[in-house]
Amino acid sequence: MKELGYTRPTLYRYLKSLKDSGFVMPTRGGRFALGPRVVEMDYLSRRSDPLIATATPHLERLSAAYPCTALIVRWYGDKMLCVASIASAVAPASSYPRGRPMAMGRGAIARSIMAFLPKQRVMPLVTRYADDLRSVGVGATPDEVLAALKRVRRAGVAVAFGEVTAGAVGIAAPILDAGYPIASLCITIAGQHANGELIDRISSEVREAAQRISAATEGDSL
Amino acid sequence: MKELGYTRPTLYRYLKSLKDSGFVMPTRGGRFALGPRVVEMDYLSRRSDPLIATATPHLERLSAAYPCTALIVRWYGDKMLCVASIASAVAPASSYPRGRPMAMGRGAIARSIMAFLPKQRVMPLVTRYADDLRSVGVGATPDEVLAALKRVRRAGVAVAFGEVTAGAVGIAAPILDAGYPIASLCITIAGQHANGELIDRISSEVREAAQRISAATEGDSL
DNA sequence: TCCAATAATCTCATTATAAGAGATTAAGGA
DNA sequence: TCCTTAATCTCTTATAATGAGATTATTGGA
Question: Cα(A119)–Cα(B83) distance, rounded to whole angstroms?
Answer without folding.
Answer: 43
